[in-house]
Amino acid sequence: MNQRINELKKELQELIGAQTCTVTPEMELIRELKYKEAKRESKLHGKSYSIVDLKEGRFAYHVSAHDKWLSAPVIDINEPNNLEQIYNLTHPDDLQKVIENELRGINFMLELPIEKKEDFQFLYMRRLLDKSGNFQLCLHRLSVAVWDETGKPWLLQNCTEKLPGYFKNLSQISEFYLLFPLTQPNRKKREIFVNNIWLTEQELNILQLVYDGRNQLYIAKKNFISVRTVKTHFTTIRMKLNMNNIHMASVFAKLTGILMQLLFLWIEWGEDIEEIMKGI
């Protein structure tokens, strides 16, 4: 396992280090605006923002809303090899899948044509160690922040948010990843979306209550139905979303916008992103 993880780390470092682009004064101005925007958004929404400089192969900027509960600061931008710092706080069971997801996400971002650079985020999860010795579930949103006139990415942005505490003990969360389309300009739905999932109004209501941490009895009383009927709805929702756990189904629905009845693109574990790219 350790040998495989070291191989993946090396592959990731080589991938990032191999990127080249021509940085213009306009791009440097955009970078400064991105830094200010990240600082503002972190303060407003309680999230952390990290920006990777692909030319330098390191985190160039980091603002964290999570240092108050993390066991140690995640990223020191003054360290030359700071890409590995977050791995020290990552749950050992997640580490290999997390690095594989990062490779998958960065490769996808590198392959996006220039007109699609702003259209997608790559989402994945990991558990991070807190001050009490427990692991908290976090979501990462990876996107291209700045690119040159030929479309070569210069800066990648990773937005991190802590998910509700009752998800912290779930296993296999590192196998969750998602390509999230941010825009849908003049394209047919079937050309963008693998799955088109619609839930009933009651199913949406129940899923929202699950995400809010409500138990089965509360959900039953709130919807004037029996606990048995709630369980039946849980089963139906899990089948529609192809999830084994109702809590993960609620996270998935929240992240993808299903709770707002939006469409999404779901990439099953192991599916080749190159096949998806053909339709973009």
Describe the protein.
The chain is of the alpha+beta class and 280 residues long. It has two domains: 2-190, Beta-Lactamase (2-Layer Sandwich); 197-262, Winged helix-like DNA-binding domain superfamily/Winged helix DNA-binding domain (Arc Repressor Mutant, subunit A). It has helices at 2-17, 25-45, 95-111, 189-192, 201-211, 216-223, 227-241, 246-256, 273-277; strands spanning 48-53, 58-63, 120-129, 135-147, 153-162, 177-181. β1 and β2 (58-63) form a beta hairpin. The protein is globular, with a radius of gyration of 20 Å. Mean pLDDT is 79; it is low at 183-196 and 260-280.
Distance between the termini: 35 Å
Task: Indicate the CATH architecture of the largest domain.
Answer: 2-Layer Sandwich
Give me the CATH fold name of the largest domain. Beta-Lactamase
Q: What is the CATH superfamily of the largest domain?
A: PAS domain
What is the approximate shape? Answer: globular
SS summary, helix count: 9
Q: What is the makeup of the main sheet?
A: 6 strands, antiparallel
Helix content: 25-40%
Total strands: 6
Please tell me the overall pLDDT: 79
Which residue ranges are poorly predicted, with pLDDT under 50 across at least 5 consecutive positions? 183-196, 260-280
